[in-house]
């Protein structure tokens, strides 16, 4: 089943709204965001205007470099049951449930440091038991201790993405040495959030977790899925406003792609070309709304077209996440169908990605954490 379009009935496509935004460098209003996100695919000149402006803003605010976040998917064991996710608790078709050995996780992170990747992302399914929390603490501490070098005197930068936890747990992770945390809201619309999650997962809890991350000291990242069944252009515009309202430092968002072993699979997904178009406009619009945030060109873009990540970089993204998870377990971390790089060795992925980035006319920011300028402006405001 395919739902081929997203509801644009309330978008009030108004060219003058975003033209004013582009010409005068203003932070886009909600109406301007709706207008940008409603630009039809066939209006190539208008799309290019938005893309050029997003790239200008990106270069001015965060620079032209692309920063790597080597991602280690260290466990697919999950206690949650999100209706869209391939590793949801109730999916008995997952090939195997795994937890990588601690040393293997650490070695993967050290490989990143040796290759000049300034940062790693440690990602897993969600668990809140003490054994898991202690495991994450140990891994983070060990990586920080063993990754210090002349090039990275403070060690590799560490982003965690291990779901909703308590404020106390976030503080433990931060004190261990992690300094960025990605927790996607998936949608800022409470009703849509409820539709794609089971009743025990509440929008208010997710929102509080994002606030708790800020209290714990983290650079906070979040993001949404684009093209969810029942989503509208208005909702996506408000998602961008939500990013601004809670003042996030980094954004990782991507197209909604179905997984066949999930309850939402029967609802289908948008046609790929339309979904890619909308996803790229979301990146550009978010860059205009949050000029100094880090924005990722996510792997899911590459699931739509082979050069999806490069296209994301051409619309204002400045971060990408090469997969360095050991090959033998990658198949078991299939969050959605057609996930790229499932059988590609990390060395091959590195060479491939370097070429992809070069094709966009940009360079990789090696041996640097590549933290969000937005975070530092908040932490150290000018007098």
UniProtKB/TrEMBL annotation:
Domain Radical SAM core: residue ranges: 64-293
Residue numbers binding S-adenosyl-L-methionine: 186, 206
Cofactor requirement: [4Fe-4S] cluster
Protein name: Radical SAM domain protein
A Pfam short name: Radical_SAM
Organism whose genome encodes this protein: Sediminispirochaeta smaragdinae (strain DSM 11293 / JCM 15392 / SEBR 4228)
Gene3D superfamilies, per the entry: Aldolase class I
Gene Ontology MF annotations: 4 iron, 4 sulfur cluster binding; metal ion binding; transferase activity
UniProt-annotated binding residues for [4Fe-4S] cluster: 78, 82, 85
Details of cofactor binding: Binds 1 [4Fe-4S] cluster. The cluster is coordinated with 3 cysteines and an exchangeable S-adenosyl-L-methionine.
Keywords: 4Fe-4S, Iron, Iron-sulfur, Metal-binding, S-adenosyl-L-methionine
SMART domains: Elp3 (SM00729)
SUPFAM superfamilies according to UniProt: Radical SAM enzymes
Keyword Iron-sulfur belongs to the record: yes
Recorded superkingdom: Bacteria
């Amino acid at each position: 089943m395919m739902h081929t379009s997203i509801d644009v009935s309330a978008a009030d496509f108004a060219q003058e709204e975003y033209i004013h935004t582009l010409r005068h460098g203003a932070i886009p209003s909600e109406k301007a965001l709706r207008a940008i996100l409603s630009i039809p695919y066939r209006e190539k000149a208008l799309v290019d205007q938005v893309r050029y402006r997003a790239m200008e803003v990106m270069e001015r605010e965060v620079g032209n470099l692309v920063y790597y976040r080597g991602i280690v998917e260290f466990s697919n064991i999950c206690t949650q049951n999100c209706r869209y996710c391939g590793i949801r608790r109730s999916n008995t078709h997952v090939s195997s449930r795994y937890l990588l050995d601690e040393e293997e996780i650490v070695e993967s992170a050290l490989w990143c440091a040796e290759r000049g990747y300034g940062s790693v992302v440690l990602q897993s399914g969600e668990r809140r038991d003490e054994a898991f929390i202690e495991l994450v603490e140990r891994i983070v501490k060990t990586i920080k201790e063993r990754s210090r070098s002349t090039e990275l005197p403070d060690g590799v930068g560490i982003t965690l993405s291990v779901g909703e936890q308590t404020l106390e747990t976030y503080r433990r992770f931060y004190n261990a040495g992690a300094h960025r945390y990605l927790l996607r809201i998936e949608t800022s619309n409470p009703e849509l959030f409820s539709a794609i999650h089971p009743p025990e997962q509440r929008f208010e809890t997710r929102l509080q977790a994002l606030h708790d991350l800020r209290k714990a000291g983290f650079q906070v990242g979040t993001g949404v899925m684009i093209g969810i069944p029942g989503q509208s252009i208005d909702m996506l515009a408000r998602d961008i406003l939500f990013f601004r309202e809670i003042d996030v430092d980094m954004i990782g968002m991507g197209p909604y792609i179905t997984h066949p072993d999930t309850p939402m699979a029967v609802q289908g997904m948008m046609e790929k070309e339309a979904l890619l178009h909308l996803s790229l406009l979301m990146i550009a619009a978010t860059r205009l709304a949050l000029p100094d945030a880090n924005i990722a060109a996510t792997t899911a873009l590459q699931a739509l077209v082979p050069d999806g990540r490069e296209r994301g970089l051409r619309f204002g993204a400045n971060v990408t996440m090469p997969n360095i998870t050991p090959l033998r377990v990658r198949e078991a971390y299939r969050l959605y169908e057609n996930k790229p790089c499932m059988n590609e060795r990390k060395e091959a992925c590195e060479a491939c990605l370097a070429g992809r980035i070069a094709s966009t006319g940009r360079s990789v920011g090696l041996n640097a954490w590549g933290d969000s300028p937005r975070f530092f402006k908040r932490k150290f405001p000018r007098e």
